[in-house]
Each structure stands twice: as C-alpha cells, then as structure tokens.
C-alpha cells in the first residue's frame, strides 16, 4: 500500500508499553465482539462509530455558498484504510439520507460496501474468511425520506431497510414501499433515536452495527447509552472557518458524554509528516 516500510508503521502509545504496530491490519485485529448474552438485559449488540476531527474540533465546514464538506486534508489514505477495516467487522452499516444525497450528487464517495478500492481485497477476504456474508446489511436513517437508494446495494445483495419515524411524509413511505424498499417506522420523531435504531436492527440479528452517520445520530446514540465504542482520528491540523460541524448536534449530554480511552496510536507519517492520532474510546 505504501512505498517505504516505515510508512506501514504507527506507534502504540496507549496502553503502554509504547511499541511499533503495523498500520494495515490494526483495526482488522480489533475485537469487536458484542457483549456475551445475559451481560445486559437487552440483545447483545456492539455499536461503534468512527470520526475524523481537526485539532480545533471540526468534522466539516460550510462554504460561503452554503455547501458543507469535509475540510481539505482532514482525511487521507491511512485514515481511509482504518475506516474500511472497521467496516469489515459489521453486520450492518448504518447510514442516512444526507449521505445518500451526497453520494448521488458526487460530493462524497461510496462507503456502502466492504473492501472498496484497489487495496481493499484483503479487507473483503478477511471478512469472508470468517464466514461472514460478503457484504453487510445497510440501514438508512431518514426523517424526510428524500432518498436516492443507490443501485450498488441491490447489485451486492445487501439487505436494506429505511428507518424513519411517525412524522415522516406518508406519501414517501408508500412510494418507497411500492419501489420495494422496506421502511420501518420507529418512534414519534422527527428524528430516529439511537435506542430505536439499535432495537430494530438487533431484532434482525445484527450484532455489530457500524454507525457511518453524522453528529445527529452520534449524539442520540450517546444520549441513549447505546454507543459502545468511538474510533476517532485526530488530525494534527487546525481548520478554522466561521461555520462548521462538530461531532455532536443537540442538547448538552452531561454524564452520557463520558468516554474512556482504550487505545491511542501515533501515525507520524500522515499529512506530510504532521501526523495524526488514532484514538479509541469506550463508553459505559
Ligand atoms: N469528519 C467526519 O468524521 C464526519 C463524519 C460524519 C459526517 N461528517 C460531515 O459532517 C457534516 C454533517 O454531517 P451529516 O450530514 O451526517 O449531518 P446529520 O445532521 O447528522 O445528518 C444529515 C441528514 O441525515 C438524515 N439523518 C441523520 N440522522 C438521522 C436520524 N437520527 N433520524 C432521521 N434522519 C437522520 C437527515 O436527513 P433526511 O431526514 O433528510 O434524510 C439529516 O438531515 C457533513 O458534511 C458530513 O459529510 C464528517
């Protein structure tokens, strides 16, 4: 993947002792097993999310023309590799209407299948070697139901469901149903809550849920106590900007916002040598 052997390395800073680790395989080697049955009153599910943030806390910036985009330089091939390694563990990728619209317009690339990209074959193989389906199911969160459902989901035989609420426009629920897309109405709305989404997907046998969602769902998953783990890439750059997104949207979280560091890796080679940190936090 990278030309020099040094470029394959990151340094594990936590837990100690510090040691070199290979970048490729770092997150394939993660244990993402759901808690054992009986450990909680609910179905055993592991819900994990991945974000990349700048040092000043930006995950996206809004241009003068109102378009929101990932800040330049925030993501890179090394972070992208780990994002895809996390996908390999998933029974279900959870995405949302905002992403599908960005995909359809070409402003974001495709992240709906495991093993994407020229160097993704080993990631896809890792999954099938473990007896998992070639591709995970996909759940789409949407309040508006303004959804261009991409053809790649059917082409890859991925089970798909749309999760919405009782506040969704009835005509769009019916139109999606007529088009053969399953729509599950969860709570009263307007937004699908983290707890409701996890309950629906756990009820379908999904035990490892990868939230490829944004600030709204992350906040809800934390507030509802259903997020298990947060993978966070911290880019060593400041982004600035007058209008921006951070990882969370909505009210103050209080105790529900507490997380515990479980791993920290320094990736010195990223971003022309400025580097980045790969952190993992556990909740609860
Ligand atoms: N740096 C990073 O790691 C990172 C990660 C995620 C996002 N981002 C960026 O941050 C910006 C904002 O993120 P975002 O677009 O994900 O914002 P968001 O406000 O969380 O979600 C965007 C849209 O998705 C649908 N949606 C999301 N959560 C939902 C829920 N719980 N229930 C029902 N519908 C829901 C809604 O659209 P509809 O109801 O109309 O379908 C919502 O307006 C974007 O530019 C994005 O690319 C960056």
Descriptive keywords:
284 residues, alpha/beta, Dihydrofolate Reductase, subunit A, 7 helices, 14 strands, binds NADP nicotinamide-adenine-dinucleotide phosphate
Q: What's this entry about, in short?
A:
This protein is α/β, with parallel strands linked by helices and 284 residues long. The chain is 22% helix and 25% strand.
Question: What order do the helices and strands come in, and which of them pair?
Answer:
Layout: E1 9-14, E2 19-22, E3 46-53, E4 60-62, E5 68-69, H1 77-88, E6 92-96, H2 97-105, H3 121-129, E7 137-141, H4 151-155, E8 160-164, H5 170-178, E9 182-185, H6 194-203, E10 208-211, H7 215-223, E11 229-235, E12 244-245, E13 260-267, E14 276-282
Parallel strand pairs: 3-10, 3-11, 6-7, 6-10, 7-8, 8-9
Antiparallel strand pairs: 1-2, 1-13, 4-5, 4-12, 11-14, 13-14
Helix-strand sequence: EEEEEHEHHEHEHEHEHEEEE
The CATH architecture can be named as 3-Layer(aba) Sandwich
Q: Sheet bearing the most strands, described?
A: 11 strands, mixed
- How would you sum up the global shape? globular
Number of helices, where a helix is a run of at least 4 consecutive DSSP H or I residues: 7
Number of strands: 14
- Please mark out the parts with pLDDT under 50 across 5 or more consecutive residues, or reply none: none
Query: What would CATH call the class?
Result: Alpha Beta
């Amino acid at each position: 993947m990278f030309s020099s052997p040094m470029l394959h390395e990151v340094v594990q800073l936590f837990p100690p002792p510090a040691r070199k680790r290979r970048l490729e395989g770092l997150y394939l080697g993660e244990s993402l097993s759901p808690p054992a049955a009986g450990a909680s009153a609910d179905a055993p599910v592991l819900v994990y999310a991945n974000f990349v943030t700048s040092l000043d806390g930006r995950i996206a910036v809004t241009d003068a023309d109102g378009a929101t985009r990932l800040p330049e330089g925030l993501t890179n091939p090394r972070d992208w590799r780990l994002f895809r390694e996390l996908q390999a563990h998933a029974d279900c990728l959870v995405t949302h209407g905002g992403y599908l619209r960005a995909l359809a317009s070409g402003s974001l690339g495709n992240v709906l299948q495991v093993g994407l990209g020229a160097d993704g074959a080993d990631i896809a193989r890792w999954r099938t070697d473990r007896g998992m389906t070639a591709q995970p199911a996909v759940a789409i969160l949407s309040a508006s139901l303004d959804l261009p459902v991409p053809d790649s989901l059917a082409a890859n035989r991925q089970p798909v469901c749309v999760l919405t609420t009782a506040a969704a426009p009835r005509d769009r629920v019916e139109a999606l149903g007529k088009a053969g897309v399953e729509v599950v109405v969860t709570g009263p709305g307007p937004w699908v809550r983290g707890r409701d989404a996890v309950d629906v997907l756990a009820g379908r046998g999904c035990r490892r849920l990868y939230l490829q969602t944004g600030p709204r769902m992350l906040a809800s998953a934390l507030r509802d106590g259903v997020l298990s783990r947060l993978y966070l890439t911290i880019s060593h750059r400041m982004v600035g900007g007058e209008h921006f997104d951070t990882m969370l949207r909505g009210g103050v979280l209080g105790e529900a916002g507490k997380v515990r560091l479980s791993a920290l890796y320094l990736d010195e080679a990223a971003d022309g040598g400025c580097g980045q940190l790969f952190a993992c936090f556990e909740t609860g």
